[in-house]
Amino acid sequence: MYIIANREFPTWVDVQNAIREILYSGDRQIEGEEFEFVNEFLKRHPKYDRKTVDMVAIEIRTHRSKPQFPAFPSFFIVQSDGTREDISYKKCVSGKRGGYNHVKDHLIAYRCEIQYQIDKQKDRGRDVCACCGSTEKIQIDHVKDFIVLVNDFELFFGLNAQVLDMVDHPSIAGEKNFRDRALAEQWQEFHQYNATYQKLCGHCNRKKKKGGRYRQPKVK
């Protein structure tokens, strides 16, 4: 069972069919419950955060990616300044966040297992960016890079990312859990003890990222 924006689907194929039905329903702006469903589905895209930082709408537009190719419908993110950028639904359909390999997929499981800890930080303190002082689009960020915490954990327990066994999350499409629940609890305890957080605006958080990894922001 897959649940996306409160819609239930028996199989992942049913999810794909629902997305394609919307995509091929004609050029238009997506609204209401359809918007909630499509937006939740598009979060599986590896560049979702960057593409949607100033999103005000999602549209379906028929276009040609290259002159020699036939026209086909695509989802487009409409930004607050009126610009539009396409976002590939196929990279969301794969179930591997844009075709990421197993090693990248296992990071999804690591984050999913401790998401509840991050959510608790959202209600703590003022929503002000630690870098620029902005109060817009505040996000919870790891002070010590998340990938470093994962590497430290695997090194401490002698784990190999290539052989970690994962299962699909029981209710959230595209998310992963560790099959070994004892391992999951070890990771949750390790993260709880070692992780520190800061609040950043979307702009400052994006400046930290390079090639899918993180960099510490400069202290001003």
Tally of alpha and pi helices: 8
Mean pLDDT: 80
Strand ordering within the main sheet: 3-4-5-6
Nearest-angstrom radius of gyration? Answer: 19 Å
Strand content: 15-25%
Q: Indicate the overall shape.
A: globular
Q: First CA to last CA: what distance? A: 48 Å
Main structural class: alpha+beta
> Could you give a short account of the major beta sheet?
4 strands, antiparallel
**Low-pLDDT residue intervals, each spanning 5 or more residues:** 95-102, 210-220
Query: How many structurally independent domains?
Result: 2
Number of strands: 12
What percentage of residues falls in helices of 4 or more residues? 25-40%
Topology:
Elements: E1 2-4, E2 7-9, H1 12-23, E3 28-30, H2 32-42, H3 48-51, E4 55-63, E5 72-79, E6 84-87, H4 90-93, H5 102-121, E7 138-142, H6 146-157, E8 166-168, E9 176-178, H7 181-194, E10 197-201, H8 202-208, E11 209-210, E12 213-214
Helix pairs in contact: 5-7
